[in-house]
Every structure is written in structure tokens, then in C-alpha cells.
Amino acid sequence: MSSEFLWYIPNQVEPGHRGDSAGEGHRSLDTLTRHALTLEQHGWDGALIGTSWGRPDTFIVATALAARTTTFQPLIAIRPGYWRPANFAAAAATLDDLTGGRVRINIVSGQDNLAAYGDSEGDQAHRYGRTKEFMRLVRRLWTEEEVTFAGEHFGVTKSTIAPRPVRRGDRLHPRLYFGGASDAAERVAATEADVQLFWGEPLDGVADRIARLKRLSRDLDRDLAPLQFGLRITTLVRDTTEQAWADAEAKVDEMAKNQGTVDEHRRAPAVGQQRLLDLHARGEVLDDNLYTAPGRYGGGGAGTTWLVGSAADVANSLRKYRDLGITHFVLSDTPYLPEIRRQGDQLLPLLRDDAVPAVERRLDPEQVA
């Protein structure tokens, strides 16, 4: 399976996300469009657009960017509690139809300011039970007609959405990405997701999780195409290894000075985020160049661990993840716009499938584990 490479477009109310240099006008349509067009021009397939209450609405941002581009594929993060399944299925199918099949969806079940938009949820079992129903029902609405469903959380009667998502080859609808490292989250991923996204864990941790999810898929009688795997991580690339590490350490020093500002991911860490925060106890640098120090000073999510080095160093590390079965990569570094160009021009050519030496072979994660 060929690899796919996406970036990250910040849709934040305040400027300076993770040290980004963009100032006034950072969230204007012209600025965000410049990001999307630059991604097209420098070899990227698209970009993740994150979600949480208090940000510009992710679906609206994605729609606006899709309208101003031709190949850019937005990976649109959405929350089951913010949307009803039929409303969402219709909106996503419409955008997919209008863009010729460019929509991707990232289902997010992490905590949020639910009361602000009138949502409520119970314990973890309730939250992931609702997510499972949401994903299953949305998929049915995209692929079936006259859908009737009565679940614990959602229901529809004789529901047919129009227009339908674009069908192309084995693509029947927008791909559903999903994250989460708890037992409950992994059970949802094993049965309902198209792509499981991992944070930037070391190779052995990713191999273990891939093997476990494959076993779960078999044990839970997954009735979909085989689960695919993705990596969401910061990649700090410079012209030389020495320059990359000098810049990485300088960034962490600056984060340490500003430690009073707590990253939102650290307030109530989910299981996956806590796994990242705990990595520093194993060492400041793991594998060849996985830098864990950012997690000590406020780096959260994809900013908790960084792959650091020259383009060749980072490409070598990403190829090792690919050997484990990772085929979807969501990369980023700040300042976002210049790094789209740098990494698109220097890193991506080393990662495209025709650039991989023929002697490389894919490893079975269950053998690695």
C-alpha cells in the first residue's frame, strides 16, 4: 500500500500555536488558503485540521479551503457529541461530492468543553459506546439507503442521504481516522475505524499496538477492510543533523522558560497522551532521534515528542515506522508555512514509495512484538 503524507493547519483564535511565527491575520481565509495552496505545490496530500470548542469551526474552515484548492484533502476533525450522525453524514457527503472525493474525517472522542455546546456524556464506556454507534451509523448512511437504526445513543428511520460520497476504486466514502490508546478506544478502532492514528511513540511501542489492534480486529470479527495505521508527529528538519539538534534544544529551552503556560493536553491527560508524557523516564532521546524533552515543558499531543535531524535522518526514522505497517503520516513543525516548503522539498522526496530502496522489506508487527 502506498504511503500518504499530510501536514497540519492550525485553526486557532490566538496566534502563535506551538511557536508559530504568524501574527495578525493568522486565521484569515487568505492566510489559511496560502497554507493549503503551498501544501499542494510542495507535494503534500492534504492536512489535518483540529477541533475543540473555542476554535473556529473545523468543518467550515475545511470547506472554505477545499473551495479554494484543487487537490488539497482536508482531514477534518469532528466530535460525535457536537454532531448528530445524519447531519454529519449529509454534510460530509455533500462536501465530498463537491470536491470530487477529497474529504477525510478524524473522529475525536477526547474530552472537551461539552457544556458549552450543550453536550453531556457519562463515563468512558458511555463515551466510546456512543462513538462506536456514531461511526457505524455514519458509514451505513454513506453506503446504504432507507437506513433504520435504533441504538442506545442514536437512531434514524428510513434515512437516505443525497448526494452520496464519491466512490472511486475501493474508496466507498471518506476514510474515517481515529485515535486513542485506552482499551475502550482500541476496541472501537479495531471494529469501526479505517485508520488508527498513533502519537509519536518509539518503534517498539507502535509495533506492540499494531499487533494488539490486529489481534483485536480478529477477535472482535471486524467486518470492514483491514485496519490501516497512521503516525501523527512533529518532525524538526534542518540542513544538517547538528543544526537540527541545536535548534531543537533551543526550542525546548524557550518552552522551559514559558512553562507557566500549560498545554491543554496536559490538564487531564488521556491514556495515549500519558504514554507520551511518561516516555521521558526512558531517556531524552529514544530510538535514533525521537526527542522526548518537549513533553516535560508543555508540549502536548503531536508536540510531545519530535523526530529531529537532517532530512535523511528523519526520513530514515519514518521509513522504520513504515516497515512496521504505518502508511499514513501526519507531520508538522513550526513556523508552519516555511516548514511546509522545507519538508515538502527536502523530506518528502526521500519518503515517496519510488524512493525507497528495493532491498527494504515490510516487517510484520506481530513478529517484531
Summarize the structure.
The protein is an alpha/beta fold and 369 residues long. The protein has helices at residues 29-41, 58-67, 85-98, 124-143, 183-192, 203-219, 241-257, 271-278, 311-324, 336-346, 348-351, 365-368, and strands spanning 4-8, 46-49, 73-78, 104-107, 147-150, 155-159, 175-178, 195-198, 228-238, 285-286, 290-291, 306-310, 326-332.
Overall mean confidence score, pLDDT: 90
The total count of helices amounts to 12
What is the helical fraction, as a range of percent?
25-40%
Biggest sheet layout: 8 strands, parallel, barrel
Unreliably modeled segments: 261-268, 356-369
Strand order of the largest sheet: 1-2-3-4-7-8-9-13
Proportion of strand residues: 15-25%
Globally, the shape reads globular
Judged by helices, strands and strand pairing, the structural class is: alpha/beta
Cα-based radius of gyration, to the nearest Å = 20 Å
Give the number of DSSP strands. Answer: 13
The helix/strand series, from N terminus to C terminus, equals: EHEHEHEHEEEHEHEHHEEEHEHHH
First CA to last CA: what distance? 22 Å
